[in-house]
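User: If you would, consider this record:
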Amino acid sequence: MSIDNAVLSFAGFMVLLSAALAYFVDPLWLLLTAFVGLNMLQAGFTGFCPAARIFKAMGLQAGCAFK
């Protein structure tokens, strides 16, 4: 698994988790969805993603997006 795949999988998991928490617990959990979306948007423009750095430190191989 590359860093790119790990970042996309993690973002997808966080969005689904926050949607479930918003449905079952409290709608304010949608703020987590907004945070994940904003983080993905800024990563698209700047190329900086904190999750990618963490996955790189864990030893995952770089893909074409996060080197």
